[in-house]
Automatic annotation (TrEMBL), chains A, B:
Pfam families, per database record: PALP (PF00291)
Name of the protein this chain belongs to: tryptophan synthase
Entry keywords, A to Z: Amino-acid biosynthesis, Aromatic amino acid biosynthesis, Lyase, Pyridoxal phosphate, Tryptophan biosynthesis
Family: Belongs to the TrpB family.
Assembly, per entry: Tetramer of two alpha and two beta chains.
Record pathway: Amino-acid biosynthesis; L-tryptophan biosynthesis; L-tryptophan from chorismate: step 5/5
Cofactor: pyridoxal 5'-phosphate
EC number(s) per entry: 4.2.1.20
């Protein structure tokens, strides 16, 4: 009945063998990472105590356009990639839109999200350097799960600091991460100095990604054969996640399609940065001009209400400084269910692109996002993660605009993951006990007051 | 690095457009369903008060070899089919077996299992007949979720009676089923006569699939525009589920493979019957001779320790009688986590094939099955459902036998679903608080004593 299939899979051979580094095509680079004490730009070697060497190099490399994916990582990818590009026929029909809606679905692996793309790379490089363990933080739990799967595969010990709010909302994330052999600690915790300091200041805090990062970094630095890994924000993460966009572009080419509009949810930027990578190449080089829309939660609006400034990547103020859109490392986001988007900052690459006008951004309130999620679930059968549902909201908004104007645009969005571990959130939505939290200007000011003085 | 890909997907056009009815090739049919009062064979029309007409016809039809899949169901299938056939390279390597292990993975849809194949068909036929609602039971919750998704799509009201043990073990199944707009009631409940009777006799019962079936049937019969649907055991279910085996066979043919051994978990028989269908055609007609192995829980061993006899399909003794391997409709299985396999009986088709020597059967204890599940998860990244893990256990056993004998056999097993809603079970396993329950001969005798006197 339909010419374009619902689902398009590449063959195993068509899965990218190289990642794409957007920075190699960016006309201007983001401002350098700074040492928070000296305010001097960091060298690659300065990162070695935190990240393993290969990842440190990737973090700083803005000239290599394509990076070979190690064979072991390619083999790992074969267990869950390619991911399908799906035509949302049922959603289109229900909306009555002339727009064509596609989504790249990254949820069909046990981490439930795109996070496994970068987890595989990081675990591989750490193992390859001879390390025995890594530490990390997790918000919604998808990153922690992804890393536990990758560490089980490559044979590394793992300690996960999970944001306390999410830990309590999602008790089964603990079980799954433990099943893959990792240790999981709710953050802030008393196991680290920075955790104890945060708890002393605010004993009832539900934590944040910023807190959990501080604890994970501290724990990694303390141990000889251990390093820290991070599932978003970083340049290396966007590099690994480019596999999403590269697969997507090849699949669309096979269908004779090119997106007019690309929509992704934005927390730290891992998915959005990966999804848009090869399309942004076209945009920067003037080959094509797709609109790119980031959708963030109204409760944690770093792009739409944040400042473009140097800030710490963590709440404990122990990481390097990055120039990014930020709400301030002291900003404590309300307990929104999209735990993966509760981060005060934003990828420096995406921040630069946003600042330079390549990306638009909107924000959405929690209940509005769940309206879109439940509608989508009933139409397309996939139960989306709260984070991913921000992208659904954005795509539906654009599709309805096409309905008004009669334009048959091609909309692509990233469906980053599934909501199987978010049922407490869906339960709240179903029971109509879900609330929206929007920070006041005073709330934001308190965050901005914590910005370091750099200039 | 590998010639045969990890994952083989058919194209959308290659997904079967017809189901295959094994009965058309069986040399002997199973004994007819009987009216429990008159002990007379049932006619198709006798089923109309319980099942919708088209499904009643499918239930009785043993001559039509191929049944067209309605276009609406084909379209629905496109949202989640084809499912991948996966080569378990990492499992093979870890076992050090010369055997080639393939698995058909049916877990990549929101029901988390193969159940959506039959749910789509049943919801479609019910809607097409002009019904407004259906009722059903669910054990593990996969069938209830599948049917809620299908009913949301085709526009039917749904009431799900969920086995109380599972309902309590898996609180989030309720949330997901409600998200798709269905009503869910723990069984036995006070909403039906049969539920009240069961509770009066045994107030502390955790319920069983047999109880929940009684309640769902009673509720369906009471309402004019409602019918009952069932996710396993029935001939119609095996017909719909044949899509698994048909896809599988085509994919294997593309790879130049044919299975020497086929392994599936067995509760009511929905997955096993679907997986083996086209291979059993080869076996019955003498074209090929694969070994077929059913794996059931030691706690509910209908094939390995049951009787081949006429029995009720439910605990409340309101359904027709079916000739099948059964533990007796009064047999109350222990609270094993493989809720989908806690059924006293077995598909009449599979029972007949087992009795006639076409199928072998083994049973496995719960902790042994979880040993296999966790090993598999760490190697293949997919967290399997407890039910599916029975098949993993069986496949690993055969692969290790090949290691002993040095034979390079091709083993195919059905990975029916994911364990994302079974984390309480994994948690028990991780904490080493999981128990095995094996019924004593006296336990079984109590079940057998409840068998109706037919001859």
């Amino acid at each position: 009945m339909t010419k374009i299939p619902y689902k398009t899979y590449l063959t195993e051979d068509e899965v990218p063998k190289q990642w794409y580094n957007m920075r190699a095509d960016m006309k201007e680079q983001h401002d350098p990472f700074l040492n928070p004490e000296t305010l001097e730009p960091l060298s690659t070697e300065d990162l070695y105590p935190i990240f393993c060497e290969e990842l440190s190099k990737q973090e700083m490399d803005h000239t290599t356009r394509y990076v070979d994916i190690p064979e072991e990582v390619q083999e790992f990818y074969k267990m869950f990639r390619p991911s399908p590009l799906i035509r949302a026929y049922n959603l289109e029909k229900a909306l009555g839109t002339p727009a064509k809606i596609y989504y790249k679905f990254e949820g069909n692996n046990t981490s439930g999200s795109h996070k496994l793309n970068s987890a595989a790379a990081m675990a591989y490089y750490a193992k390859n350097q001879g390390l025995t363990s890594v530490t990390t933080e997790t918000g919604a739990g998808q990153w922690g799960t992804a890393l536990s799967i990758a560490c089980a595969h490559f044979g590394l010990d793992l300690t996960v600091f999970m944001v306390k709010t999410s830990y309590e909302q999602k008790p089964f994330r603990k079980s799954i991460i433990e099943t893959y052999g990792a240790k999981i600690i709710p953050s802030p915790s008393i196991t680290t100095e920075v955790g104890r300091a945060i708890l002393e200041k605010n004993p009832k805090t539900g934590g944040s990604l910023g807190c959990a990062i501080s604890e994970a970094v501290e724990q990694a630095i303390k141990q000889e054969q251990s390093r820290y890994v991070l599932g978003s924000v970083l340049n290396q993460v966007l590099l690994h996640q480019s596999v999403i966009g590269l697969e997507c572009k090849t699949a669309l080419e096979k269908l004779g399609e090119y997106p007019d509009i690309i929509v992704g949810c934005a927390g730290g930027g891992s998915n959005l940065g990966g999804l848009i990578a090869p399309f942004m190449q076209d945009k920067i080089t003037g080959k094509k001009n797709p609109r790119v829309i980031a959708v963030e939660p109204a409760s944690c609006p770093s792009l739409t209400r944040g400042k473009y400034a140097y800030d710490f990547c963590d709440t404990g103020r122990i990481t390097p400084l990055a120039k990014m859109y930020t709400l301030g490392s002291d900003f404590m986001p309300s307990p929104n269910h999209a735990g993966g988007l509760r981060y005060h900052g934003m990828s420096p690459i995406l921040s630069k692109l946003y600042n330079d006008g390549y990306i638009e951004a909107i924000s959405a309130e929690q209940t509005t996002v769940f309206d879109a999620a439940v509608k989508f679930a009933k139409l397309e059968q996939i139960l989306p993660a709260p984070e991913s549902s921000h992208a659904i909201y954005g795509a539906v908004k654009e599709a309805l605009r096409c309905k008004e104007t009669g334009e048959q645009k091609t909309i692509l969005f990233g469906l980053t993951g599934t909501g199987y571990f978010d049922m407490a959130a869906y339960n709240q939505y179903n029971n109509k006990t879900m609330n929206d939290y929007i920070p006041t200007d005073e709330d934001l000011q308190r965050g901005f007051d914590s910005l370091p003085k750099v200039d």
